Amino acid sequence: MNKWWLLGLLALCPLTLCTNPGVTGRLTQKGLEYGRQIGMAVLQKRLQSIKIPDISGKVKVKHAGKVKYSVSGMRIVNLGLPQSSLGLVPSSGLKLSIGNAFIKIKGRWRVKYLRVIKDSGSFDLSVSGLSISAGMGVSRDGTGHPAVSSASCSAIVRSAKVKFHGGASWLYNLFSRYIDKALRKSIKKQLCPLVAKSIEGLNPRLQTLNVLAKVDKYSEIQYSLVSSPSVTKNYIDLYLKGEFYAIAHHQEPPFTAPAFSLPDQAKSMLYLGLSQYTLNTAGFVYNTLGRLSIDITDDMLPKSSPFRLNTKSFQLIIPEIEKKYPNMPMKCVVKTSKQPLITFEPNNATLQAAGTVTAYAIQPNSTLAPLFIINVVTSVSAKVYITGTNIAGSVSLNGLEISLVESYVGPFQVQVLNNVVPFILKTVVLPQVNAYLKKGFPLPTLRKMSLVNPQIQIQKNYLLIATDVRFQP
């Protein structure tokens, strides 16, 4: 019975929704306000494209009888959206409200009455009291990008006043109410479709979210949404996969993301929570690919170093090496024996790495003679920072433990290497690691988006990034 209950639960809970995200993004009301400002400029431009068809008809006017009229060549000369707001509707999406908007239009008029009398002139149309209320749905599309859609719309055009100029304008002013009604109806009919089109027009920008961002020639990081965004009364949360993959082969790591939740803050436009899981998937990928390895030779040591990587330098600590392989250069191969793991605790990031150091003598015929293999377990402090839209870092050695795995030059006390190994790690290995970490990897961002005054806090199990954003035109 329990087995069938579990199978039923799994059927109701898709894998992506039952897995904690590696990255959580939070868009606050402050961020929405910035988005509203950008969106209103786009909407205003789109509303200026309203096309008002020519209007014609007949009306009976006292003393003039039946009058044929037409208005044509109408164009918008001014449009204003002085009041607007964008609010959050919990569990639903967004609500856009526009009030007291106005449109001013110019055009031409023409009349014919008493069968033979014709007249023409220009007119001004003032549309005022225009208001729009539109609901926007927020979801996840099939490619893992956020998406918005038009959920509802209503529009009101309270007044459309026409003022005619030239010719027998007194005649037109007599039946302007007929034209007012026709123009109001024509404009209102176009408002909601244009608003819906503007909302749908946001999706191409949302699709520039780097859901699969290349890190280097070996790996990429996936930022696709694992579920639809969650809308509350104060913010929108987005749950992203946040996982590194090898470019050649996508393989899931043998561990899962820990659960974490962002603190209830709203001073910045955007908050990003980057789980330690995300960084640990990077360690898994590079360790699986065998990329966490480095060959060290003497020319890589500082020229000022009194210690050289050759058998002569080892004669005081392991005499048998110099006796067996006199005056020969050496090479050390440093590589991880398992993936490194980073841990985030409040205000502290540490990296645990375990590996081996294999020392060789380079013989005159260039063949390598193994000397010894040792295990090394290190504790490393990590610092993280933002550069552009990348997150980067650096590491420094806290301490290490070494143990002998095998010796090919007879027994010796491994403690004699307590100064040599840290020296090699600090002068060669860590500088190369830091040079790579300095490049960083991309954060989830949209095209033409930049981070403004980003701040990082280290929380338990994740990094909290608080930032404002700007979009280039």
Share of helix, binned: 10-25%
**Overall 3D geometry?**
rod-shaped
Mean pLDDT: 90
CATH fold topology of the largest domain: Bactericidal permeability-increasing protein, domain 2
Instruction: List how many beta strands DSSP finds.
Output: 22
Tell me the structural class. Answer: alpha+beta
> SSE order in H/E notation?
HEHEEEEEEHHHEEEEEEHEHEEEEEHEEE
Supply the CATH superfamily name of the largest domain.
Bactericidal permeability-increasing protein, domain 2
Structure report:
The protein has 473 residues and is α+β, with helices and mostly antiparallel strands. It folds into two domains: 48-203, Bactericidal permeability-increasing protein, domain 1 (Super Roll); 212-471, Bactericidal permeability-increasing protein, domain 2. Helix content is 22%, strand content 46%. The protein contains eight helices and 22 strands. The protein has helices at residues 2-12, 29-47, 169-174, 176-200, 203-206, 276-288, 319-324, 420-439; strands at residues 23-28, 55-61, 65-80, 83-89, 93-113, 117-140, 146-165, 212-214, 219-222, 230-231, 235-240, 243-246, 270-275, 293-297, 330-336, 341-345, 348-362, 368-387, 390-407, 441-442, 449-459, 462-471. Strands 14, 15, 16, 17, 18, 19 and 20 form a seven-stranded antiparallel beta sheet that branches. The protein has a six-stranded antiparallel beta sheet with strand order 10-11-1-13-22-21. Helix 2 crosses helix 4. The radius of gyration is 35 Å and the shape is rod-shaped.
